[in-house]
Design brief:
alpha/beta; 13 helices; seven-stranded mixed beta sheet; two-stranded antiparallel ribbon; 17% strand
């Protein structure tokens, strides 16, 4: 009986110690959650954290306040990023699938955005109707005509989604039903119905990928090699109207490859340090032609100067034309080459279709390049 009593006492003590350790850990965790400041932006999830709510009885009262408070507290739990990372590593590393419905784990270490528009375009289930194609033609021609009145030429550059250039790495659960994507639809329609100057980069990039990898494996964008071949296609088309404009040969750049945790996609999955890829870097041989560069005076907290603000480069190539890129994030790498080719290169973010007339008038370019990613067609 004494032995059983001793065993029962030991079990009670073990339970009390376990409970005590758990409560101490919980207290420290809650205290850390209250003390630690995670900031306002979650880099791992690419979103702003929920702000501290205020109780306003004229704007929903407790009905609105309670869920807002829950979101605020959930975003400030201590070790939150570490737990998200552990969850992501388990899904990607062990299960081979994405921990979020916004991203796709492809084959052989390739990752893709699970954007509804891009996937529909890749599978061929999303098609542009006749009215939509006619609307695109009308809007683009209106912009071309307005720019002509300002003395600027206009070139439309169609950029294919990564899914279209590397469909062989998409998972088998997402088969292609039709290869006639919106990109090809618009290019064909404009060729048949309009005299717009269009540079369709699909053939260029499909040909280039036979020699080199032109998109990142862990990111939705092309790499610097893809941007280089796009740049050559654009400059060669502009050469008809601007004879002094000549693309730099690939030999003018030093090409190096280096492994790094590069991709936006893997960062959003919290596995960037687990998944490396070889990233190409092209840098001019010798002296750069850029003599001036200007940046925004002030960047709001959490914003990216690379994506959302005007960038301007001036070179010493005074006989070359000036260009404004109405662009999305794909033109960030285009600027690596454009700034060494044009006299003035300005990049303006267009937010998938917005046309910033005031900014165009400000710079008075010889040519406006409207760079449009395929998923922007949706």
């Amino acid at each position: 009986m004494a032995v059983k009593a001793d065993e029962a006492g030991a079990q009670r003590l073990e339970s009390q110690v376990t409970l005590g350790v758990f409560l101490i850990a919980l207290i420290f965790w809650c205290g850390a959650s209250l003390v630690m400041d995670p900031g306002t932006l979650s880099r791992s999830e690419n979103r702003y954290l929920a702000p501290a709510p205020t109780l306003d009885f004229q704007a929903g009262g407790l009905t609105a306040y309670v869920p807002a408070l829950a979101d605020y507290l959930a975003d400030r739990v201590a070790l939150r990023d570490a737990m998200i990372s552990l969850h992501a590593r388990t899904w990607v590393g062990l299960l081979g699938t994405s921990p979020t419905d916004k991203l796709i784990v492809g084959k052989d270490g390739w990752f893709f955005l699970n954007d509804a528009a891009a996937v529909g375009q890749y599978q061929g289930t999303a098609q542009l109707g006749e009215d939509e194609l006619a609307t695109w033609q009308r809007v683009l021609e209106q912009r071309r005509d307005w720019l002509a009145e300002q003395g600027s030429a206009f070139v439309l550059v169609l950029v294919p989604n990564k899914h279209q250039i590397y469909p062989e790495y998409m998972p088998d659960r997402l088969p292609r039903i039709s290869a006639d994507e919106q990109h090809a639809q618009l290019a064909r329609y404009l060729k048949a119905h309009s005299d717009l100057v269009v540079v369709d980069l699909m053939p260029t990039l499909l040909q280039a990928k036979e020699e080199q990898r032109v998109y990142h494996k862990t990111d939705g964008h092309w790499n610097e090699l893809g941007a280089y071949y796009a740049y050559v296609a654009i400059v060669e088309r502009l050469h008809h109207d601007f004879p002094t404009l000549v693309a730099r040969p690939l030999s003018w750049f030093d090409l190096t490859w280096h492994p790094e945790p590069f991709g936006v996609i893997t960062r959003r999955m919290n596995v960037a340090d687990q998944v490396l890829e070889d990233v190409p870097e092209l840098r001019p041989r010798g002296r750069s032609h850029v003599i001036k560069r200007s940046w925004p005076d002030e960047i709001p907290e959490g914003e990216s100067e690379e994506l959302y603000f005007t960038q301007r480069f001036v070179s010493d190539l005074k006989r070359r034309p000036s260009v404004v890129f109405l662009r999305d994030s794909f033109s960030t790498d285009l600027a690596v080459f454009a700034k060494e080719t044009f006299h003035s290169t300005v990049l303006l973010h267009h937010w998938f279709g917005h046309f910033r007339e005031d900014e165009v008038l400000r710079y008075k370019p010889d040519v406006v390049v409207y760079e449009l990613l395929e998923r922007g067609l949706a």
